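Fold sample X.
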Amino acid sequence: MDILLDKQELEIQEAISSLFAGECSTDLLRKSEEHPLHYSPELWNRFTADGWLQLCLSAECGGEELPLSYLALLFELAGYHIAPLPLHSTLTAALIIDRHGNEEQRKLLLDVSSGDLILSHAVVEQNGRWSTNAITLEGRIDGEELVLNGRKGFVGGFLASSRCVVIYRDASSPENLGVVLVPTDIPGLKSEALISMAKDGEATIHFEDVRVPLGNRIGETGSGNKIAREMMDFSAVLYACMMAGAARRTLDMAVEHAKQREAFGQPIGAFQAIQHLCANMLNAIDGTVMLAREALWRLDRGLPAHVHVAQAKSFANEHCMMTCRSAQQIHGGMGFMLEFDLNLWYRRIGSWSLRGGTIAEHRRTVSAALLDTPGHVRIGAVPGSSI
C-alpha cells in the first residue's frame, strides 16, 4: 500500500475539504441536532449534487469505481467537520448492495448516488455486542416471504432512511446468518428514536412478523455469514476513519489555543508538557489513519482484513478519545463546557467509539488471532469461526 496520496487523491481531498469548510458551520451542527431526523437536508442535497456518494460505487450503479482508499479521505474529512449527514449509514449499506445485491437491488443505488435514497444498516441488538454470535433477530421462511421477529438497537440514520440492510439469524439453520433489504415503512416495523451522546439520529427498531419478499435477501444462499461480517467490517473501519478526522480537528483547535493562551508571560505552547501532549496526539491520529487506510486497502483487494479492521477500530477507540481529552485539557476548564465548540467533537468521538465495536471486543479479535490459533499466525483470518 502506498501511504502517500497521489495527485488525484489530493485534488479530491481538497475539493471535499472546501465543500465542508464552506457549508458545515458549528451553527449548522447544533441546528441539525434539533432536526427531527438529526441531519441537514440542505447540506445533504449540496453534498450529493457534487457526486461524492458515487466515488467508490460501480459504474453500472452510477459510481466512479475508484478504490476504497478514497472513502478514507471522504470519511476523515466528514469526521474533521463532523458533517451532519447520513453518510456512514448510507455508504456502508450501499457498498454491500453493490458487491452482493441482485440486479433489482443494485438499481436502487442509482437513487443513492443522486441522494434521493438514504439507506441504513442494522447489526447490534439488545445486548449491544458487536459480534455475529450476538445476533438473534429471527428470519423464518414462509412460502415466498421472509418473516422477521426481534429487535435491533443503535441503528444509525434509520429515521432518515427508506431502506435498511438487516442482519438476521436463519430460523431453519441457526448457525447461518442472512442479510436482507427491508423498507423502513413496511407493516410490523416500528421504531423509536434514541438520543445518543452524539445526537445524530440513532434508533431502536422492532420487528413484529415483518414480511418481506424472499427476493429482498442479499447474496446467494449460504453467503450470509460472509456478507454479514463484511458489512460489520465496513461499518467499523469507516467509523475509525471519521474518528481520525474528528481527532485531528481537536488537535488543530488545541494547537491554535496553545499559541494564543499565555501563562507566565509566554504562550502555553512553549511549555514542554504541552508540546509532548500535542506530539502524542499527532502520533495517535496518524496511527489511526494508517491502520484504517490499510484495512480499507485490503478490503478493496479481497485480502484478509478482519483483524486489520479490529486493529484500526480498537486503536481509534482508545487513541482518538485520548486526543480529544488532551485537547480539552489544553483548553482548561472551558474545554469541558457544553457550549464550547470542542464539546461537539468530544460527544461524537465518544459516541463513535462505542459503535462498530468497543476496544475490548476488537482487542479480543486481535488477541485471538495471535494467541488462540495453532501454528503460524495469519493476520486477517477469523479464528475459531467459519466467517
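Fold sample Y, listed below.
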Amino acid sequence: MNKDQVEGRMEEVKGKVKEVVGRVVGNEKLKGEGAGDQAAGKVQSTYGDIKEKTKDAIKSGADKL
C-alpha cells in the first residue's frame, strides 16, 4: 500500500463523516464539502491503486527476465 492509497482512503472517510454531520445538522455547505472530499479521496486512492499495480507489473516483468 502506498501513500496515495492511504491518504485517499482517509480523505474519503473524512468526507463521509462531514457529509453525515452536514445531513444531521441540516448544513448543506458541510454536506457538499463532504461529498467533494469523498470524490477527491476516491481520485487519489484510485491513483495510488494504479501506481501500485504498475509497480507490481513492472516487478513481475523484471522477475521473468
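Sample Y note: Residues 3-63 form one domain.
Also: The chain has a mean pLDDT of 95.
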